[in-house]
Amino acid sequence: MIETRLNNLALIAFFSLFLFSVSATAGNQKEEAMADSVRLALSNAISDARPPSPQFDDINQRMRYLRWLSDMSDRIKKKMPDPKVRLDFLATVWYEARRAGLDPALVLGLIQVESAFRKYAISSARAIGYMQVMPFWTRIVGDSDRRKLFHMQTNLRYGCSILRMYLDMERGNLFLALGRYNGSRGRAEYPNAILASWKRWEHKS
């Protein structure tokens, strides 16, 4: 019994050390007042549980998607060696970005800057996961279970939906929307870093 408890404590300590060892350095979204209609729209976007399922109007669109998938898979192979994990991640990025009206290259650029593609990254401000989502969002528009932010699709769903909301709030001004996402609205460093990273992830079809 004592040995089992010691083993459990050791596992907890190791897991805690692991989480803090992959900490991210990005900033954080700020909790701010929002209209009920905005809160409801964001909540509905988050709660849609349908799995990623890309839809195409014709074969040309599908072929462009498959070429993008192949290109991006080659680019992040070193960051995600497992082919299934890599393809699931990219398919979900593509789906969630398009669902939110965002360029998948922009989302990949943001993930590069925010977490360097680390699923379990935690910032000094306690932002979580690939897109460094602040836990308070789960209380405002979710079910208050912040642990779900370590789930790939949930994290990408929150991140893309929040950035879309900020874009709408800033009337399409991406520079200001990115500043809000990082909690540094009005400063140039973060938006410029994301915009530069976005260019590196563009796909030449």
Describe this entry's structure for a reader.
This protein has helices spanning 2-21, 36-47, 59-75, 83-99, 104-115, 136-141, 152-169, 174-182, 189-200, and strands at residues 23-24, 122-123. The chain is mainly alpha-helical and 205 residues long. Strands 1-2 form a two-stranded parallel sheet. Helix 4 (83-99) packs across helix 5.
Short structural summary:
The chain has 205 residues and is mostly helical. The protein has helices at 2-21, 36-47, 59-75, 83-99, 104-115, 136-141, 152-169, 174-182, 189-200; strands at 23-24, 122-123.
Which helices and strands occur, and which strands form pairs?
Elements (H helix, E strand, L loop, with lengths): L1 H20 L1 E2 L11 H12 L11 H17 L7 H17 L4 H12 L6 E2 L12 H6 L10 H18 L4 H9 L6 H12 L5
General shape: globular
The proportion of residues in beta strands is under 5%
Which blocks of ≥5 consecutive residues have pLDDT under 50? 1-23
The total of helices stands at 9
* Element pattern in H and E: HEHHHHEHHHH
Strand order of the largest sheet: 1-2
Backbone CA Rg: 18 Å
Estimated structural class: mainly alpha
Number of strands: 2
Largest sheet: 2 strands, parallel
Tell me the span between the first and last alpha carbons.
61 Å
Round the mean pLDDT to the nearest integer and report it: 85
Fraction of residues in helices?
55-70%
